């Protein structure tokens, strides 16, 4: 990864964090913890378009335990709240490359940010937000 690509990607941290917080706010649970308690440290992520591609994005992930016991229906409802917010705010739902019946969903907005929502089946929902990718000149690609 080049310094310019990394710098451009790091500059995306604030909007990535805003999107992650907006999605976190959609979860409707009693005594929901704050995002910071369940967010992994953000970081640079390589974008793989081709083998020779040298592009970088910024990504952050959070996982919310929705229940103390396995509750797939509650997970699905919580993930749907986030999906509804994405749809209401103009995010496009992308085709899911996973096998039919997989509950993961992928979304992209007009600015090139992507969101992946993953109900884990063990009382957790994961939200992953990734910025657009930037090349070694700091230009948005992909």
Oligomer: single chain
Low-confidence runs of at least 5 consecutive residues: none
Task: Tally the beta strands.
Answer: 8
Helix content: 25-40%
- Backbone CA Rg: 16 Å
How far apart the termini lie comes to: 16 Å
What do these coordinates show?
With 142 residues, the chain is an alpha+beta fold. The chain contains three helices and eight strands. The strands form two sheets. Strands 1-2-6-5-4-3 form a six-stranded antiparallel β-sheet, covered by helices on one side. A hairpin with a 5-residue loop joins β7 and β8. The longest helix has 17 residues, at 72-88. The chain starts with a helix and ends with a strand.
Keywords:
142 residues, alpha+beta, two-stranded antiparallel ribbon, six-stranded antiparallel sheet
Q: Briefly, what is this?
A:
By secondary structure, this protein is an alpha+beta fold. It has helices spanning 3-10, 13-26, 72-88, and strands at residues 43-47, 55-65, 92-94, 105-108, 114-119, 124-130, 133-134, 140-141.
Outline the fold blueprint:
Elements: H1 3-10, H2 13-26, E1 43-47, E2 55-65, H3 72-88, E3 92-94, E4 105-108, E5 114-119, E6 124-130, E7 133-134, E8 140-141
Antiparallel strand pairs: 1-2, 2-6, 3-4, 4-5, 5-6, 7-8
């Amino acid at each position: 990864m080049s310094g310019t690509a990394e710098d451009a990607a790091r500059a995306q941290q604030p909007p990535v964090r805003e999107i992650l917080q907006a999605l976190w706010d959609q979860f409707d649970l009693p005594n929901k913890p704050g995002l910071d308690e369940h967010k992994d440290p953000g970081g640079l992520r390589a974008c793989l378009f081709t083998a020779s591609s040298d592009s970088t994005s910024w990504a952050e992930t959070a996982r919310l335990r929705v229940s103390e016991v396995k509750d797939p229906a509650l997970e699905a409802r919580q993930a749907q709240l986030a999906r509804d917010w994405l749809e209401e705010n103009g995010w496009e739902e992308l085709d899911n490359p996973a096998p039919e019946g997989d509950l993961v969903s992928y979304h992209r907005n007009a600015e090139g940010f992507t969101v992946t929502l993953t109900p884990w089946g063990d009382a957790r929902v994961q939200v992953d937000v990734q910025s657009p990718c930037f090349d070694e000149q700091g230009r948005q690609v992909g």
